[in-house]
TrEMBL record, chain A:
InterPro entries: FTHF_cligase-like_sf, LUD_dom, NagB/RpiA_transferase-like. It comes from Flammeovirga pacifica. It comes from the Bacteria. This is LUD domain-containing protein. SUPFAM superfamilies: NagB/RpiA/CoA transferase-like. Residues 86-187 form the LUD domain. It holds the Pfam family LUD_dom.
From TrEMBL, chain B:
Keywords: 4Fe-4S, Electron transport, Iron, Iron-sulfur, Metal-binding, Repeat, Transport. One of its GO terms (biological process) is lactate metabolic process. InterPro entries: 4Fe4S_Fe-S-bd, 4Fe4S_Fe_S_CS, FTHF_cligase-like_sf, Helical_ferredxn, LUD_dom, LutB/LldF, NagB/RpiA_transferase-like. This is 4Fe-4S ferredoxin. Residues 296-317 form the 4Fe-4S ferredoxin-type domain. GO terms for molecular function: 4 iron, 4 sulfur cluster binding; metal ion binding.
Length: 189, 460
């Protein structure tokens, strides 16, 4: 018998009585204004929030970050650098600009599709991260989020909530563990 | 894998040799517990979520066969290699054979309690493969040649000065430096090099979804997204109880997990993997290692609900004051104390007794495991089936008799009073297991005498 068969037959042998699968409600939001709640949440997470109806400020940020290193952008025509998928080059990126598909107000998480990026590690490898998110793509909570996000459609996808962090040394919060040291969320109206 | 102590009492005694450290440890964990409370109380549907999560787990376990097969089928269709391991040894062999096939020398690993449970690191080290733990806390304990003392906060027992010393020795940080930001930056630089040069990445799994064949891993540091996305081979190791039926259930569990663990609304990265990147390989190892046995134990089945948040540790008055290393099992605290006896009742016989049975662990558990009830039930089995604390068994039997007979009970109360007032050697000797590590109170009278006196007073 293979281990697969052994495990499956062991479970079969227990013959557990069937338990019903409960229905998961969507649950209502805490705040009437999910945008305000989302921005507040991002502030708490130490995220810089920029709300704009054009690209000007975004281009300025890219230019500024280019003074200290290269900048990748999954959105074309913003003046970012050409990137070869070379580990060392990626590791020295100063800023990675990526597109967010959906923001979640209750926890400040933003969904990012892996295939939108030149390389999957661009969600974590650059010193700083900027996520561009359309203003209308914000939902209240995770239940609602999963009615829009189909993770199975993406080889890799991730909810990112704030800059990377750790509190593993005496519970002191430090931003910038392995992923981005800072996060800017650029909300496009 | 186990820690160095034979019993929890032995480890706890060692930890309590330094009362200042005990107080510091206790406060650090209580702080996390308080953050959990604030976070949980801000969600009006919290209790409902716990109930749903508990029911989803019960349902998944009652159809585990179906979901395992469904998961395998979907994962394979996604181009993922699926492996099955009956026990720890087979798990280690499977991982090793994948690494061998790819001639892997350097592995980066993200936090996985399962690989700790299976003793994967030493197994691979013995075969010439370097495994670097990339979670900061895990890296700290790895450099110190220790095991995690907590499943979410692996280095919670270490002071920053100790981390500074360790980093000075291994990462060339300045001598005497203990600033957490400085030390974290040093680890970032050190581990970046490891990420960039890794031939393979091993990660744990928080949730695996049967209907899609994919899985989710949660971190704050981003080590999974660095490791798994940079290395050509990604091996994800999971216990078979991590399965949930549908994507919609991720919403329930991701809302509960981080809030219960650290009080955060969600972890920084909740990474979903369904297919390998082009030209790369993705493997999943499904591990039993005693889980089907536990599933067969009606009284203890529910322990498989566990999502490894660590809330039961943070709230436990015993864990906080004895430290994670005092437990004889990889997973410490209340949950470790109900998971371990099923693996080796004799070896872990002291763990169900590392509790006051106050029930706080059950109250904070996001998947409603009846932890304190299970602790109590394991105690019954330990006393029946092992030689654990035989000296107490005689005393307990006698106490049972005395309590069943009012006249004997009164007599014992009076005798006891005399003994307690007498020379210390009457009570604090090798024959009395209750006199060890415990100062007994010296009463002025028995309750019976007190009651008779006061009853008369009230009559007046």
């Amino acid at each position: 018998m293979t281990s697969r068969e052994k495990i499956l037959s062991a479970i079969e042998g227990i013959n557990l009585p069937s338990k019903e699968l409960p229905i998961t409600p969507i649950f209502e939001g805490l705040s009437e204004d999910k945008h305000a709640f989302f921005f507040e949440m991002l502030n708490t997470l130490g995220v810089e929030v920029i709300v704009s109806d054009n690209d000007d400020q975004l281009k300025d940020i890219i230019k500024e970050k280019q003074q200290d290193g290269k900048v990748y952008s999954s959105i074309p025509d913003l003046g970012a650098d050409d990137l070869t998928v070379n580990k060392d080059e990626m590791a020295n990126l100063n800023l990675s600009v990526i597109e967010g598909q959906l923001g979640v107000a209750e926890n400040g998480a933003i969904w990012v599709n892996g295939e939108d990026l030149k390389h999957r590690s661009l969600t974590a490898i650059a010193s700083h991260l900027l996520i561009v998110l359309p203003y209308h793509k914000i939902v209240w909570n995770m239940h609602e989020a999963y009615t829009y996000i189909k993770p199975q459609d993406h080889g890799y996808g991730v909810f990112i909530s704030g800059p990377s962090k750790t509190a593993d040394i005496e519970q002191s919060l430090v931003k910038g563990a392995h992923g981005a040291k800072s996060l800017i969320v650029y909300i496009q109206k | 894998m186990s820690t160095q102590y034979k019993t929890h009492q032995e480890g706890a005694k060692e930890f309590n040799k330094n009362p200042d450290r005990v107080t510091w440890h206790d406060k650090a964990l209580w702080f996390v517990r308080e953050k959990r409370d604030i976070s949980a109380h801000s969600i009006p549907e919290w209790e409902e979520l716990r109930e749903i999560a508990s029911q989803v787990k019960a349902h998944s376990l009652s159809h585990l066969n179906k979901y395992l097969e469904q998961f395998e089928e979907n994962a394979k269709a996604n181009g993922v290699h699926v492996h099955w391991a009956k026990d720890a040894a087979e798990h280690n062999q499977i991982v090793h054979s994948i690494l061998e096939k790819h001639k892997v020398k350097n592995v980066v690993k993200s936090k996985s309690m399962l690989t700790e449970e299976c003793g994967l690191n030493p197994f691979l080290n013995d075969r010439g493969i370097e495994v670097v733990d990339t979670d900061l806390g895990e890296r700290i304990v790895q450099l110190a040649n220790e095991h995690p003392s907590h499943i979410v906060l692996p280095a919670i027992h270490k002071k920053k000065e100790e981390v500074g010393e360790l980093f000075h020795e291994h990462l060339n940080t300045e001598k005497g430096a203990s600033d957490p930001t400085y030390l974290t930056r040093a680890a970032r630089t050190h581990l970046r090099e490891k990420f960039l040069n890794a031939d393979a990445a091993i990660t744990g799994v928080n949730f695996a979804v049967a209907e899609t064949g994919g899985f989710v891993v949660c971190t704050n540091e981003g080590n999974v997204d660095m490791g798994a996305n940079l290395a050509p081979v990604h091996i994800a190791c999971m216990g078979i109880e991590k399965l949930i039926p549908k994507v919609e259930h991720l919403g329930v569990f991701l809302r509960l997990l981080a809030r219960s663990a650290t009080g955060q609304a969600i972890t920084t990265y909740s990474s979903h993997f369904h297919r390998p990147a082009e030209g790369k390989e993705l493997h999943i190892v499904l591990v039993d290692n005693g889980r089907t046995e536990q599933l067969g134990r009606e009284d203890f089945r529910k322990s498989l609900n566990c999502i490894r948040c660590g809330a039961c540790m943070n709230t436990c008055p015993i864990y906080r004051r004895s430290g994670g290393h005092s437990y004889t099992y990889t997973i410490p605290g209340p949950i470790g104390a109900i998971l371990s006896p099923g693996k080796d009742l004799k070896k872990h016989s002291s763990l169900p007794f590392a509790s006051t049975l106050c029930g706080s662990c059950s109250d904070v558990c996001p998947v409603k495991i009846d932890i304190h009830t299970q602790l109590y039930k394991w105690r019954q089995l330990v006393m029946k089936e092992t030689n654990y604390e035989k000296s107490k068994q005689v005393g307990m039997k006698f106490a049972g008799k005395a309590m069943g007979s009012p006249s004997l009970f009164n007599l014992m109360g009076k005798v006891g009073n005399i003994f307690l007032k007498g020379p210390r050697a009457f009570i604090y000797n090798g024959l009395n297991a209750w006199g060890i590590d415990r100062e007994l109170p010296v009463p002025t009278e028995t309750f019976d005498d007190w009651f008779k006196k006061n009853e008369k007073k009230n009559d007046k």
